Amino acid sequence: MKLAIMRLAIMKLAIMRLPGLLGLRLCLIFSLTVALSTPAAAINREAFAIAKYDLEIRLEPEQQRLGARGKITLRNDSAQPQKIAALQISSSLNWRSIRVDGKTVQYVSQPYMSDIDHTGALSEAIVTLPAEVKPKDSVELEIGYEGVIPLDTTRLTRIGVPEEIAKHSSWDQISPSFTAVRGAGYVAWYPITTESADFSEGNSLFEVADRWKEREAGSEFQARVTTSRESGDQAPSMICSPGGEKIVQQFSRAQIVSAGCSWTRLGAVTPTFAMANYEPEPKPPLTLYTLPGHEAGAATYSNALEPAMKFVSGWFGQPRAPVAIADFADPNSAPFESGTLLMASMAAEDSKLAGTNLVHELVHSALPSSRPWVYEGLAHFAEAMYRQEQGGRQAALDLLGQHRAAFLDSEKEVSAELEKNVVEKSGGKRSVGQPLAVTFDETCYRSKAAYVWWMLRDMVGDDALKQAIGKYRTEDDKDPKYVEQLIESASKRDLGWFFDDWVYQDRGLPDFHVLSVHPWQTEKGVQIITVTLENLGNAGAEVPFTISFEGGEITKRIEVRAKSTATTRVEMPGTASEILVNDGSVPESDLTNNAFKISGP
Ligand SMILES: [Zn+2]
After folding, report:
1. Confidence label for 30 from pLDDT (cuts 50, 70 and 90)
2. Pairing of strands 138-148, 93-100
3. Which residues have CB under 8 Å from 42's CB, separation 6+?
4. Which of 169, 280, 313, 370 fits a disulfide with 267 by CB distance 3.0 to 4.6 angstroms?
């Protein structure tokens, strides 16, 4: 799956295409909004997190309508008491009521420009709470809101992305034929509390969205999505994720279709619901939700299930939670996942992709974790291992290579932006450049994490890593060093330095090259080569290197710490001609200095 890569590609394409004039217009709109809402300017919009959601969502697809009521719990995460809360929903929705302890509270509703929603704006309620909420204290609100959620590409088209391209990534909508709506970062169909996010400001959108995810990682989310219709035709399939469960109730004339999502700690998962006239095919633990005409593509998933199950069970345990794959009519729609739900078009018959997609979701089903680098990192790592099982190590490294491209670009952008003082602009609230252990930056917890797991496997071997993964329990994962301890006790190896450089700190990437080579012969005529490697980067790694000689090659591994050198001797069956450091299994900042030609002794 290329989720992170696709998201970044599309979004960054959008940013790069920002023409000057449009950017200016955007700035003007922003200043205007700020001017209009001066009383709210002093509000700390991110003071409150929403610790708990309990929502009833009613859909009327014919009118593209959504009506919501329920309860949310606001928790004051700031250091000061707060009396004002800013609650935001998509700008195509409107606030209807906000109550505390059964009494209506005062609020002012206003538009708030932000690219965190597909409409490019939010409906914000500035709520005056009945009493100050002290730091760490909470207050429960009863809320009601309603409106429509049509397809909307505004946030992309207004920065110059052509409508046709924008539709492939901005596909959220409620409509009679197809309904699919993703949560925060796409459509605020449930309330959020965020600062304005801007596509034209480099990474600002991702920072605001990632920061929101981080603040909500421990939150409890419950929603029941319902629609009622005349009985008669076959009921549409309703999906709600994470943790969704579908119920169809039949009354004399009406039919009520509903699905509930329930999740105790959101982690990096985005709550999502979908409804369409799918042809559901249950093959526990998997259900395929296929659209008519895509039967052949669905069959490739069906056929890929058994080998994927066998592989995943062997490494990660038995998949437990139900897994769903839901189709798109448009084959170009960007795939998206929410927990164990994957939305991806089944138009193509790509058995390789079906296999890795299934492996990814089955790993989520077998190994829940609220730590994104464990939850997503392991799933992407498993895809690479599965690729190796089917096509050899190089095929796996090619898959990882796509991830390297994704986070290498983002790391370069990060350093460029750091120089431009974006940190100051965002008030020091950046989420990028954070350690893997706590990051909510998608390219890190997916792509960088996949490599970290792969390197650990290369270092400790399959048996030790399997044993460590087998012992992992999300409820025991409280200490940041929990994963390190599991792997160290299974492998009997000190990995503190590796976790320091890759997981607990963001030290960037290593950069290896051959510093010197010395071929010589023992008295008995055995050919030996002494190799010294240097790591110019700030992160250490154990790296493979391959020595070519006439008629073959030898591969060895060596640990080279950050800003250090390491030397080893290798016995050669022939005269060494070339050394190549790193087969691609260690992500490096510079791969152009890795080959070394050996001149004669
Ligand atoms: Zn995933």
Report:
1. very low
2. antiparallel
3. none
4. 370
Give, for 263, the enclosing helix (H) or strand (E): strand 254-263
pLDDT tens-digit map of 48-89: 999 999 999 999 999 999 999 999 999 999 999 999 999 999
- Residues 6 or more apart whose CB falls under 8 angstroms from that of 49 comprise 74, 75, 77, 193, 215, 216, 219
Distance 471 CA to ligand 1 centre (A): 20
Instruction: Compute the distance from residue 367 Cα to the ligand 1 centre, in Å.
Output: 11
- The rounded distance, in Å, linking the Cα atoms of 544 and 555 is 7
* pLDDT tens profile 493-511: 999 999 999 999 988 899 9
378 to 152, 360, 407: CA distances (angstroms): 34, 8, 17
Kindly give the pairing relationship between strand 341-343 and strand 323-326. parallel
Q: Would you state the pLDDT for residue 1?
A: 52
* Bridge partner list, 250: 255
- By the 10 Å C-beta count (0-12 exposed, 13-18 middle, 19+ buried), 292 is classed as exposed
- Measured in Å, residue 450 CA sits from the centre of ligand 1 at 11
The model's pTM is: 0.88
Supply the Cα-derived Rg of the chain in whole angstroms. Answer: 26
Q: What is the pLDDT of residue 282?
A: 92
At position 30, the amino acid (one-letter code) is: F
**How remote is the CA of residue 376 from the centroid of ligand 1, in Å?**
5
Q: Are 324 and 338 in contact (CB under 8 A)?
A: no
Calculate how far, in angstroms, residue 337's C-alpha sits from the geometric centre of ligand 1.
6
Work out the percent of the chain whose per-residue pLDDT is above 90.
Answer: 74
What is the distance, to the nearest Å, from the Cα of residue 14 to the centroid of all Cα atoms in its chain?
19
